[in-house]
Structure formats: C-alpha cells, structure tokens
Amino acid sequence: MILPIYVYGSGVLREEAADVDVESIDREELRKYIEDMFETMYHADGVGLAAPQVGDSRRILVVDGSDVAEVYPELKGFKRAMVNPRVIEQSEETAEYSEGCLSVPDIHCNVIRPKKIKVRYLDADLKETEEELDGFACRMVQHELDHLDGHLFVDRVAPIRRKMIAAKLHNIAKGKARTSYKTRLEK
Ligand code: NI
C-alpha cells in the first residue's frame, strides 16, 4: 500500500519518534508495514524513508541504494529496514554529500556529516544487528536517522544556502509543492 508522504511544515516531521515496543508488536503487521514503506519509497523514486515521513512517529527507517550503485559501488545490495536504530559510534572524520528528501521536494543541498558510523538496530524480523557504514550508505542512514529525531537536512545546511532556499521552503509549508507522489501537510 502506498502511503502519502508528509512534507515540510508538517508537525510530525519535528517530533522525536518513539521506540517500537518490541514486546507487544505484531510481527506480521510490522513486516507488512515495512513493505508499505518500501513500496511508498520506490513509488516516489526515493532511496530512503523514515516512518515520520508517512505520519508515524516511530523509530523505523528503510533504505535501498541499489538504484544508485553505479555511482556509489558500496550501495550494491544495500537494502535495509531498521527498527529502533541507534548510532553507537561515529567518526570524527566528516564527508560532504548533496542530499534531498521526499518531504522537502525539489531542494538539494550539500550537508556535512560524520564519514562513518556504527549503528545498532533490529531488522524486519526483530533480530538485533550491528553494522559499520561508510560512504553514501552511511550518508543515507544518517539522513533517515535525523528524521527519527525531528531533524531535516535543510536544518544542517550553511546559513547562506539556507537563505537561498527560504522561499522554496516557505512554499512547501504553504502546500505549494508539486510532486509526482501523493503528499500531505498537517501542521
Ligand atoms: Ni528525508
């Protein structure tokens, strides 16, 4: 099932998401929900999606970099679902990449973040996993992790660039964004 994507200006994108309660969750429902998130992401031509972007303030994210593996070889086969992910280590060394976001249509900006992280999470079967990430794979996951803490990549761009995109952001928050996928704006 394809879900509408909440855009910039929506309150849910600014909330800190809550952990999924793994004791009480229906595992089959969770698996289905994760499939819906992937479907929604593919439909919108995205490479990552966090649950708050579909209006659900829980710590769940999905990424699939297969489509850009020609540019970033480390992304070959990099498809993950992460439940309750947490960064447990990050490098001091940083990297700069251009980012975009399905919740912030038509805006791309360079963002500086740690080059490598180690992340601990539960997979779609709630199996605990630890993984070291580098390169663009690391970048994709950090962008989605930000969503779970109520942050957006545009919060992290240089002030001068931020000024340049202010009018565009204002338009998105007014419901004027044009997208090929279904969106929702809820203050
Ligand atoms: Ni995003």
From TrEMBL:
The keyword Magnesium does not apply. It is an enzyme of class 3 (hydrolase). Fe cation binds at residues 101, 143, 147. One of its GO terms (molecular function) is peptide deformylase activity. CDD domains: Pep_deformylase. Gene3D superfamilies: Peptide deformylase. Its cofactor is Fe(2+). Coiled coil: none annotated. Its EC number is 3.5.1.88. PANTHER family: PEPTIDE DEFORMYLASE. Belongs to the polypeptide deformylase family. Removes the formyl group from the N-terminal Met of newly synthesized proteins. Requires at least a dipeptide for an efficient rate of reaction. N-terminal L-methionine is a prerequisite for activity but the enzyme has broad specificity at other positions. This is Peptide deformylase. The lineage of its organism: Bacteria, Pseudomonadati, Bacteroidota, Bacteroidia, Bacteroidales.
